[in-house]
Amino acid sequence: MYNFPAIYIANGTAILLLLVVMLSIRKPLHHGLFEEKMYYAMIVINIMQCILEVVTFLLNGKIEYRTLTVVLNVLLFSNSLIFSFFWTIYADYKLFADMRRIRRIYPFIAIPAVLMIIGCFINLVTPVFFVIDEYNVYQRTDLFFLTYVVTYSYLVYGVVLISMYRKKVHKYLFLPAVLFMIPVVIGSALQFAFYGYSLVWLGVSIGMIWLFINVQNEASYVDMLSGLFNRQYLNDILLMHSRKGDKGSILAGIMLDIDSFKEINNKFGHLVGDEAISAVGKILHTAVGSKGISCRYGGDEFIILMKTDSQKEIMDMIDTVRTKAALFNEAEKTPYQIHFSIGHSTYQSGHESTDAFLKRIDTAMYEDKRRKIDEGIIPDRRWSY
After folding, report:
1. Please, are residues 241 and 292 in contact by the beta-carbon 8 Å criterion?
2. I need a labelling partner for 364 at 20 to 30 A (CA). Which of 30, 165, 335, 347 fits?
3. E strands within 92-244?
């Protein structure tokens, strides 16, 4: 026996929540990035599934709608597989932002979904995953579990991918993947446990909203070009440290400026300049690791914050950054090379403002740059136009 009020409420709530998210996406779809288009597609599929599921429940047992019921169930099964496959692509692209990787790997990863969808459409003429009997009553076949295995395997694959590579590709805030899966698993379990209810797609919609919230958090605190924290996050960290007044450790700041960055832009174009900023983000993420945080301060300037007990730890970090940059210059076939002017100091939280601290490391960095200019290591661009 179906609980129609619960079915209407669950799916209606899911649709309303997803419509709110859709209205919050202000950028026109044709101007969006690839991952934004994938996310939008998953929302549309989720809404379609809510509507289809309600209709199939309503038609169940009505003999005159048997053909329509078969078609709608085929669409339900197929859309579930497509949604889960899109989720893996979305997660992968958010991590690696590499369309070549998508084109190379995902045609093979799509094979299980394609086979299941073919089976769904065969179900139009002969039972494969479900049967609609002469009374228009839905029943599962013994092969039904295969679609669930494939669907949830894709969902789990996306979560595992994020868990394994999130830190390696310097994605700081993106996607507590478990938060996406929790409502999906709970909704699925409840629907299995309580026959006649429709909770799976409500769970998926809640997971989609959590994805949306985390993407907004990422946009608020992460610089999209470098993949490092942005200036707002840096200010928040410094403010928190100044209020906390931590006496047990010293906060050190290291400011870095890319040497001759203007020349990279002028000679090779701003797209190559953007690539250089992205490369620096990867260099700093690898060099700093868990020893501190790396932020893009603005333009071609970056800041590393780290807790330290000695001057040696600061110098070791600077040496590590220079070493990673040298390795990049040797290994990567780029038309430019990455070199830094670097200044550093420690923050006396009880005796100075955060602005004074930032100004001091900025001054130290420019002293290093002036030294390089005086020694002829880098050209003096102060009077060039």
Report:
1. no
2. 335
3. 130-132, 138-140
**What pLDDT, on the 0 to 100 scale, is given for residue 182?**
85
- Which has more pLDDT, 194 or 37? 37
Nearest alpha carbon to residue 254 among 297, 220, 222: 297
Q: Indicate the residue type of 119.
A: G
The rounded radius of gyration (Å) of the Cα atoms in the chain is 27
Q: How confident is the model at residue 96 (pLDDT cuts 50, 70, 90)?
A: confident
Whole-angstrom distance, CA of residue 82 vs CA of residue 154: 10
DSSP class of residue 299 equals: T
Question: With left for phi above 0 and alpha for psi between -120 and 50, is residue 3 left, alpha or beta?
Answer: beta
Question: Cα–chain-centroid distance for residue 204?
Answer: 17
Q: Which helix (H) or strand (E) is 345 found in, with range?
A: strand 340-347
Give alpha helix (H) positions in 194-230.
200-221
H or E stretch at 327: helix 311-331
And the tokens for 97? Answer: 């932002």
* Cβ proximity of 47 and 4 under 8 Å: no
Q: What residue type is assigned to position 368 of the chain?
A: D
Give the predicted TM-score (pTM) of the model: 0.72
Mean pLDDT calculated for residue range 305-322? 92
Q: Rounded distance, CA 114 to CA 139, Å?
A: 23
Are residues 283 and 337 in contact, defined by beta-carbon separation less than 8 angstroms?
A: no
Q: How do residues 236-280 score in pLDDT, each as one tens digit?
A: 888 888 776 556 678 899 999 999 898 898 899 988 999 999 999
E strand segments, 236-290: 250-258
Q: What is the mean pLDDT of residues 159-167?
A: 79
